[in-house]
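Figure caption, in words: inputs first, then the predicted bound structure.
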Amino acid sequence: MRAAIFHGPGDLRIEDIEPEEPGLGEIVVRVEVAVTCGTDLKSYRRGHHKLFPNLPARFGHEFAGIVDRVGEGVTAFTPGMRVVAANTAPCGHCWACTLGRLALCENLEFLNGAFAEEVRIPAAIVARNTYELSGTTSFESVAPLEPLATVVHGMDKSDIALGDVVAVNGAGPIGQMFMRLARLRGAHVIAVDQAPDRLAAALRMGANEVIDISAYATTEERAASVRAITPGGRGVDVAIEAVGLPAVWEQTVQCLRPGGTAILFGGPPQGATFSVNANDMHYFEYTLKGIFHHEPIYVQRALRLIDSGALDGRDLITETRGIDRLVESLEDMAAGRGAKYAIDPRA
Ligand SMILES: [Zn+2]
Ligand SMILES: [Zn+2]
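Bound structure (zinc ion present):
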């Protein structure tokens, strides 16, 4: 079968490999559609110490498909079921899991290999983070379940309330999902980006207002342009960072009103640092929250949002392409052409 194999930064190949058989507690899923994500792009360009400790490795983690073969001991799934799986499952017994901080689980086992005709799902994910699709939910609409689950996680920690003014810095797929969900919570949403097509997408996803920050040179000017359109010019109640650059983390904090909350969501490069005015942090009582990954409860809520039609993964997908165009699609994303590509492993 054809599968994407990651050999190292900048070296991703489509190869013919032997199909895998499911081990104890595992299932093998025929991939109907897999989608690219920002993490794929990051990993492709600079590697990823958590996701790819050993190379070469299978690649891709957002997908939906049909159960083809089940391993010994699997009772919840049978061949022919339409399923979606998260890319990890918490172990349930480490110190972090015991504290209820499941995203920080020390033993997260990552699923890789969605860009292929088949993917083998590890036993822990089969047991705790794989779901049968309801009759009406399409593969394409549910394939981006994992990023939506991380956004649901960020929303949960944001405490966005009815009538809040919320700035979303970054209008890529993650930012767009935050905008849709913040609107569902009754917030007034300001989308902040510098790419016209992303700002147009932001309006389609529910942003009330957009700010094109390309007109402003510095982080301070960009944040000031956001505060300028908030009540009393004080700043936003909640600011979200959905880019993963330290300068945008700083811009996000600088958008806040006194007492506001920043959700620092985008993953910056290893070793990156950012600055906060300590005087403001003290006198303005900011709350800064880092958000990483998801938990099964957020995956389940994300699935309900998709099943109910509140959010549809297809709204995020630029185009469907064959697997031979996977690298081209990542390069397009890197160049700012398109946000998320659906990959058909058999085309
Ligand atoms: Zn992803
Ligand atoms: Zn754990």
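The mean pLDDT is 96.
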